[in-house]
Amino acid sequence: MQPDGFLSTPMVRSLLSAFAACPAFFITLAVAAFSLGCSSPSSSESAPSGGRSDSPDSVAEAPSPADSSIDASRPAGGADEQGSQATDVKLKLVDAQQLKEELAKFRGKIVVLDVWSTSCAPCLQEFPHLIAISRQYSPQVQCVSLNLDYIGLPSKPPESYLPTIKAVLEEFGASAVYHLVSAIADDQMRSELQISAIPAVFLIDRDGRIVDRFTDANASGEGVSYIRDILPRLEALRRGHDPPTDDDREGTPEGEHPAEA
To answer: Which of 90, 158, 251, 260 to pair with 169, CA 20 to 30 A apart?
Structure first.
């Protein structure tokens, strides 16, 4: 099943249909979302905001560089390679400091950190590629997801989001990815990561240095794309041709993880 096939599954279709459930709200966000991707409301608001309304087909039809291809069909549908339902998805709540500590466990590996939420349609469209990378490039590459569903409402603590997040990840068949969930409000975590919106994907080299922060603002096309943006850089790192790091370009100290940037 291709990524667009996955997006037709019941769980994700229900999430994507949420953007159509309130047309006036979605239209109000459309212009900002075009350039900022998915950003969430402040803690005083009760409803999550959405991002671009890209067609699911845009993922499957994205051009693939000759040396940067992955098979995103395997993770689709929520089942593992043996056809059994993926029920071993594990989640861990983290604040910014704990995120740094979790990422430090993977020194010696290339890390792909995908920052997403269940209310972000572009995030869901690209997520199958993260799973494919984890399955095809392990153990050299460690894939990590960081969910930002929690918006800081006292009446809805981070733990209350876990069942929905787990269900979505099981639908993806995402047990091969290491899953973290933000225990601090999404806007606070985005500030720690120095991003204004999601989707966002970080590449971290074997020494723990940030190589790139991919967001809609610096993507090569209409939004963050694993095929267009992330895979070429990942291939360079895997082959030992390390590109200049994000720290080098921005003048931040070497060795920083996203939570420290």
So the answer is: 260
